[in-house]
Write a structure and sequence with these properties.
The protein is an alpha+beta fold. It contains 13 helices and 11 strands. The chain has 3 domains: 157 residues, BirA Bifunctional Protein, domain 2, CATH 3.30.930.30; 86 residues, no CATH class; 92 residues, no CATH class.
């Protein structure tokens, strides 16, 4: 069993993250400790309000939230009653037994694990000390519970290792290792000159990098977070701060790499233009045809979408040279709008929307056959 305690800025995010997993049938809220009602009777708002009432007693605390992530060995599947008992013992062992807490069993990875969320603000407004809490309390408690419940010892080696040259499939391999290895592979093998260009390369592997929203501490300090995406571009895991990853891929540490990758050569630009013009001459009839021809020519188009689903940016990745180019590098004839006009259809839609369009087209054809 592996247990790790993280402190978080807000409880609303923690509740929303876990509740969304429940909504998507990827998790179940098993237990509500020190709440007036059972977990099954609580609404999302009631869960948030319980924590908010304590946090308001100490508004100066920057990171009032706490998440205890508990992972079990591959193949080890425990019944809910055992998971609840383990959660209770863990919270008691780390000094959180008097705090309100929620226990979520997550089912979205290849190994069983649970998230226990709480707050370190006590009913008198004081804080539970967190200095060296991992070494002094979390790890000793985890070792004791391994013996009490006859659990497998902490052994990340038992998890299948991700191949960094392949797309990350969330839940199939250890998340932290998949992100670390893939990130290192892309950083060392691709040529990019900015965060958006790096993001275009990472998206090929179902990984994304983002800066903080304006007004946040992450944004003010130039911080970056990394997160796994599914095939539809939907985030799957909790964001990982660059400072917590090996080799610390923060903006400050990436900027020398941006400069070292240099400017584009005329040949690099003309090669991509020539490939695109050749594809236009072939007159692909559908988005799938267009994307297939890109792949055959070792070229990838990577659109980036805004919060409302609008196309916010477009990059191309030359998979032979591993050079990333923006649409503006190629000229006005290769913007998303210009390419839509030349093709006669929109090749830059989200994967989920493209699937829906394909299904609607199939249904229309079937209806036509029955007329």
């Amino acid at each position: 069993m592996r247990a790790k305690l993280n402190m978080n800025q807000g409880m609303n995010y923690l509740v929303n993250y876990n509740e969304e997993k429940v909504t998507n049938r990827e998790a179940e809220c098993l237990y509500a400790g020190n709440f007036l009602q059972d977990a099954s009777d609580l609404t999302r708002k009631e869960k948030k309000d319980r924590f908010a009432g304590l946090i308001e007693l100490n508004p100066q605390t920057i990171r009032p939230g706490a998440t205890l992530v508990v992972e079990f060995a591959p193949g080890e599947r425990l019944p809910n009653n055992d998971l609840i008992d383990i959660a209770r013992d863990l919270m008691d062992g780390i000094g959180f037994s008097g705090q309100p807490y929620l226990v979520y069993r997550h089912d979205d990875t290849h190994h069983q694990h649970m998230h226990i969320i709480s707050t370190k603000i006590k009913s008198d407004g004081d804080r539970i000390p967190e200095s060296f809490i991992g070494v002094r309390h979390v790890q000793p408690t985890a070792r004791r519970l391994e013996k009490k419940y006859n659990l497998a010892l902490e052994s990340p080696e038992g998890q299948p290792r991700h191949n960094p040259q392949e797309k990350i499939q969330y839940g199939k391999t250890a998340t932290w290792q998949a992100v670390s290895d893939t990130l290192q592979y892309v950083l060392e093998n691709y040529h990019y000159r900015s965060v958006p260009e790096l993001n275009a390369a990472l998206r090929l592997y179902n990984l994304t990098v983002k800066g903080g929203a304006p007004g946040t501490r992450l944004h003010e300090h130039g911080g970056l977070i990394y997160q796994i995406l599914d095939e539809q571009g939907k985030p799957r895991n909790k964001p990982m701060k660059a400072s917590k990853l090996p080799f610390k891929p923060t903006l400050k540490n990436l900027e020398p790499r941006f400069a070292a990758n240099g400017s584009l050569s005329a040949d690099e630009v003309s090669n991509v233009r020539y490939t695109l013009e050749d594809i236009f001459k072939n007159k692909p009839a559908t988005t799938e045809n267009f994307l297939d021809q890109l792949r055959l020519n070792r070229l990838a188009a990577v659109p980036a979408f805004g919060a409302k689903g609008e196309l916010a940016d477009l990059h191309f990745v030359d998979l032979s040279s591993k050079r990333v180019l923006s649409a503006s590098d190629l000229g006005s004839s290769y913007t998303a709008a210009a390419m839509r006009e030349r093709l006669g259809f929109d090749p830059f839609v989200r994967t989920g929307e493209r699937l829906e369009q394909s299904q609607q087209k199939t249904q229309s054809l079937r209806r036509g056959l029955h007329l």
